[in-house]
Design a protein that fits this description.
Layout lengths: L1 H9 L4 H8 L3 H9 L6 H11 L21 H7 L9 H10 L2 H24 L6 H21 L1 E8 L2 E8 L5 H22 L2
Antiparallel strand pairs: 1-2
Helix pairs in contact: 2-3, 5-8, 6-8, 7-8
């Protein structure tokens, strides 16, 4: 994550200095900066807070040529702003478990905005039925559904003419057996993806 390194250097901090400020281990900061580790959202929040920036500042917009097709669903999601939606089920559950109640609404709001951006990107795709794009959209949809279940919050936007109105809905949890079936399906999908990557 080159942006983290750039922001840290602009603040005149070494990795050790940032580690002391944020409480994130120096080797973790190094791994994130070099791309050896995908950071957890809670780690990014700590780093952003200690640097006085937003988490979004770590993800500057990048331009991807239209001619290059994404290699994986995760790559397509990353290219279209789906950073939090790429979390695994376990990571998403951990985030909601660890978040204080007052931060859950904010976290769910960020997930909702990301999912909205993914929906728009999917609708604008020239080949939305391509396997990678279809799988990326399914992955994002599954994560968003799981996040909605875990949070009990659904952010919805209704647009009438030029007046968008945001409505927050409380969602009643679905029966446990449906969630268990969704989890089983997602585990099977992840296992299949892992097998396809490393036959």
């Amino acid at each position: 994550m080159e942006a983290l390194k750039d922001i840290r250097r602009r603040h005149g901090l070494s990795q050790v200095d940032l580690s002391r400020r944020s409480g994130v281990a120096q080797n973790t900061i190094s791994d994130i900066e070099t791309g050896r580790r995908e950071p957890r959202p809670s780690t990014l929040r700590k780093l952003a807070k200690s640097l006085g920036v937003e988490v979004a500042d770590f993800y500057p917009e990048t331009s991807h040529p239209k001619a290059s097709a994404p290699l994986s669903p995760e790559e397509w999601l990353r290219a279209h702003g789906g950073h939090l939606l790429r979390l695994t089920d376990a990571e998403l559950r951990r985030e909601f478990r660890e978040l204080p109640d007052e931060d859950r609404r904010d976290f769910m709001g960020r997930l909702s905005r990301e999912f909205g951006a993914i929906q728009t990107a999917y609708e604008r795709e020239s080949e939305p039925t391509a396997a990678v794009i279809r799988d990326a959209y399914a992955l994002a949809s599954g994560r968003f559904l799981l996040a909605t279940e875990l949070s009990g919050i659904l952010e919805a936007y209704f647009v009438e003419e030029d007046r968008p109105e945001q409505v927050t809905l409380s969602v009643r949890p679905r029966p446990k057996d449906i969630l268990e079936r969704l989890e089983e399906y997602l585990v099977e999908q992840e296992a299949q993806e892992a097998y396809e990557r490393n036959p």
